[in-house]
Amino acid sequence: MHPIQTLTVTLIALFSGACQVGSLHREANSMRYLQPVASAAAPAAEQGPGPRAVTWSAGPSELEGPVRVGVAFAPGAEATRRTGWSQASHDFGEPDKRRLLTRLCSNLEATPAVAAAVVVPTYHMQPAGGFDDLERLAELYDVDLIVLLSYEQLQAEDVNALSVTYWALLPAYFVRGNVNETRTIVDADVYEIDSRTHLFNASGSCKEEARCTALKSKRLLRTQSREGFKSAIAGLTEDLSRGIGGALGS
After folding, report:
1. What is the pLDDT of residues 195-210, one digit of tens each?
2. Pairing relation of β-strands 197-212 and 178-192?
3. Is 181 helix (H, G, I), strand (E, B) or coil?
4. What secondary structure letter does DSSP report for 60?
5. How do the domains of the chain map onto residue ranges?
6. Does 66 sit behind a cis peptide bond, omega within 30 degrees of 0 on the bond before it?
7. How many CB atoms lie within 10 A of CB 110?
8. What is the pLDDT of residue 154?
9. How many of the other CB atoms lie within 10 Å of CB of 169?
């Protein structure tokens, strides 16, 4: 099973024992981009022969370094589910993604095997576009490899007994009764575009937990969301740089 696909079950189990009053789940998966499902409404003859299969490789690439690398978050509609969520959520939008990808590109360019690392914005990618879309982007951005980032983030906002009991006695400024927790995982898959070969995978994760007053809860959740993505990507950067060098035999 792909690493990112196991996260939902794990996160739900971790949060199941909490007195949860609100939760938010956001995700994006590269597999839905690379392996689109053919339309059931169209006859098979009209759908064409179908996309070339992806090769899952454990060996080095035939490319010779240094190479140009594109870095992108998986495109498509972000699936965000809310359960009893009262806070205005932090939207993980294109500006946030670009800042994270720019930092990641700078780190990758310190690797001798990487000649240049380029941010590929999601608005240039077609949802469910597959490798046909990647080949278009490879020509547009002049890249040999693509790093596709999938992610899942679960945020939970809990109110403990202290907050409920003393809410009428003490102002919301003083009762630190909200417990906010954010768990994030980012999964990076590296593909050689021309051969449609998956070279390797790297993952990073982060857990943020803090107690706060109700009036500061919204701000804390937004901070935890941003820091979660930042820390998770920082956690996979070293393995990603080392993996690219190893895949190219350098």
Report:
1. 888 999 999 999 877 6
2. antiparallel
3. strand
4. -
5. 3-12+23-34+63-245
6. yes
7. 10
8. 86
9. 8
Pairwise CA distance, residues 156 & 154, whole Å: 7
CB 134 within 8 A of CB 75: no
Distance CA 72, CA 123 (A): 10
Report the run of H or E that residue 230 belongs to, with start and end: helix 217-247
Query: What is the architecture, at CATH level 2, of domain 3-12+23-34+63-245?
Result: 2-Layer Sandwich (3.30)
Length of the chain: 250
- In the numeric block, the tokens 């690398």 are attached to 69
| Contacts of residue 198, Cβ cutoff 8 Å, sequence gap at least 6 | 54, 55, 56, 57, 189, 190, 191
Summarised one tens digit per residue, pLDDT across range 83-120 is: 665 545 567 889 999 999 999 999 999 999 999 999 99
What DSSP state is assigned to residue 164? H
Residue 134 CB neighbour total at 10 angstroms: 24
Residues linked to residue 206 through DSSP beta bridges, in sequence order: 184
Share of the chain above pLDDT 70, in %: 63
Helix axes 217-247, 94-108, angle to 10 degrees: 40
Question: Which amino acid is present at 7?
Answer: L
Q: Which residue has the higher pLDDT, 76 or 96?
A: 96
